[in-house]
Amino acid sequence: MHNASPNTDALSKFDSMPDAAHVRVPVVAGLYGCSKMTVWRRAKDGTIPAPKKLSTRVTAWNVGELRRALAAVKKGGA
Predict the structure, then answer these.
(1) Coil, strand or helix: which one is 48?
(2) DSSP string for residues in 1-46
(3) What is the number of other CB atoms lying within 10 angstroms of the CB of residue 73?
(4) What percent of the chain has pLDDT over 90?
(5) Sheet of 52-55: strands edge to edge?
(6) What is the mean pLDDT of the chain?
(7) CB neighbour list of residue 20: distance below 8 Å, 6 or more residues apart
(8) Widest CA span of the chain, in angstroms?
(9) pLDDT of 45-55, one tens digit each?
(10) Closest among 7, 22, 10 to 64, alpha carbons compared
(11) From CA 60, how far away is CA 41, in angstroms rounded?
């Protein structure tokens, strides 16, 4: 039986998610290959898109915004 965590599952299905979907910090860290703390630092300095506050205890990133940011990085060769 496959016991993937929800974050691993979301990361593996990122390409098939709609642009309007949202993902949490562990998925963003996986996409960028960095730690969760680095995700927060990069969001603060504008290197990656800012997250959205969905409720008092839930902050997440828009999938469409992340795709565009990742495409720009890839296009720029970074």
Answers:
(1) coil
(2) -----HHHHHHHTGGGS-TT-EE-HHHHHHHHTS-HHHHHHHHHHT
(3) 13
(4) 76
(5) 22-23, 58-62, 52-55
(6) 90
(7) 62, 63, 64
(8) 41
(9) 999 999 999 99
(10) 22
(11) 15
The Cα 52–Cα 50 span in angstroms is 7
Per-residue tokens: 55: 């409720």
CA–CA dist 34, 71 (Å, integer):
17
Contact by Cβ (8 Å): 21, 63: yes
Using alpha carbons, select from 38, 45, 34, 43 the residue that is nearest to residue 61: 43
Residue 62 sits at φ, ψ, to 5 deg, of -75, 130
Distance, CA of 23 to CA of 54 (rounded, Å)? 11
